[in-house]
Design brief:
Elements lengths: L1 E6 L5 H11 L7 E3 L2 E8 L2 E8 L4 E6 L2 H8 L3 H7 L6 E4 L1 H10 L5 E2 L2 E5 L5 E5 L9 E5 L4 E8 L2 E10 L1 H4 L3 E6 L8 E2 L17 E4 L8 E7 L3 E8 L2 E8 L3 E3 L2
């Protein structure tokens, strides 16, 4: 399936998606959506997850026959004014660009928050989540604003977008949703799982464990791999599965 991007007025993206779904035959395209990105905003009273447009003014659409799709788009009022004399408002996305976006977004077309830990001097020690797939594309980190800015190519131009990150000190806080631009149903807040039973003599792959100390204290997960001194955990947090390595002595098996 080929990916294309439609350019429209910022703030009118979902309106265009609704019009396309209403006016175009469903067999002309597969998906039509806006891509969103989660950001973590910290305030004195707590931390809030905002869901904002990753590419303001852009709508993504996937189709096999762009020629027929292009002709039908001219029937959509929001697009007809734009593409009447300029096809730059309907652009193809390279397969590798589409594959990258597909890798970092979830089924709701949202790029979730990524977990990131440092060595205490600003150097990245470990990552999990969408950011793990694009470390080489990071332009800069802004730990205070909880973001990692990445550079990517999209439809013939270079873009920079901030991916939201959470640090170890954010893990044990209750994170509430703030402003949500995406038309998705969200819980009132994220909440850390907790609780443990008796100590297991040996941690094995597939065990359900809780982290008792360290950066991720209070988190629960499934052991995906064991090493001599560490274990890798699949932790369900922030609506996604994070693959994180922790010290073996920091985990306890759940009964």
């Amino acid at each position: 399936m080929n990916w294309y991007v439609l350019q429209t007025m910022t703030g009118e993206e979902e309106k265009l998606v609704t019009m396309i779904r209403k006016m175009l035959p469903s067999d002309l395209y597969d998906e039509c959506f806006v891509l969103y990105c989660e950001q973590l905003w910290r305030r004195h009273e707590g931390a809030f997850v905002h869901v904002a447009r990753a590419f303001p003014g852009y709508v993504f659409i996937t189709a096999e026959r762009p020629d027929k799709l292009y002709l039908e788009l001219k029937r959509v009022p929001a697009m007809s004014r734009l593409i009447a004399g300029d096809n730059l408002y309907f652009l193809a996305i390279e397969p590798e660009e589409a594959a990258f976006l597909n890798q970092i977004m979830n089924e709701n077309h949202v790029i979730g928050l990524s977990y990131l830990s440092t060595d205490g001097h600003g150097h990245v020690r470990q990552t999990a989540g969408p950011l793990r797939s694009c470390l080489k594309q990071v332009v800069r980190y802004n730990y205070r604003r909880r973001s990692a800015v990445i550079r990517l190519s999209l439809a013939g131009s270079e873009k920079q977008i901030p991916l939201g990150i959470i640090l170890p000190e954010d893990i044990r806080r209750q994170l509430r949703y703030g402003k949500v631009e995406a038309p998705i149903v969200v819980p009132e807040r994220y909440q850390v799982q907790a609780g443990a039973s008796e100590t297991a003599p040996e941690i094995q792959q597939g065990d359900q464990v809780t982290v008792m100390s360290g950066d991720l204290a209070g988190m629960c997960g499934t052991v995906s791999k064991t090493k001599k001194h560490t274990v890798r955990l699949n932790i369900h947090f922030l609506g996604q599965r994070l693959d994180i390595e922790v010290e073996a002595g920091d985990v306890k098996k759940l009964g």
